[in-house]
Amino acid sequence: MNADVANEADFFSNASYPDLHIDSSVYPFVFLDEDSKKYIFSGEGSVLPEFKMYYAPVAEMNALKIIW
């Protein structure tokens, strides 16, 4: 697969959401859950057995800035 990441939406990163102060030692991720179809979820993962999680209404996916 040869995807151009420059054209992909940035749902959750320090560049798009500097107010969240996502540390460079974690990896940000976004996902949808089949059992919670009204929400989009994001989080910060690391080697530690814990996550910092965020959520927003799925309608926010088309917004310029998601209110996490």
Q: What count of helical segments does DSSP give?
A: 0
**Low-confidence spans:** none
Strand order of the largest sheet: 1-2-3
Task: State the order of secondary-structure elements, H for helix, E for strand.
Answer: EEE
Q: What is the strand content?
A: 25-35%
Say how many strands there are.
3
- How much helicity do the residues have? under 10%
Global Rg = 13 Å
Précis, in short:
The chain is globular. The chain has no helices and 3 strands.
Structural write-up:
With 68 residues, the protein is mostly beta strands. It contains no helices and three strands.
Please write out the topology.
Layout: E1 27-32, E2 39-45, E3 52-57
Core attributes:
68 residues, single chain, 28% strand, 3 strands, three-stranded antiparallel beta sheet, globular, 0% helix, mainly beta
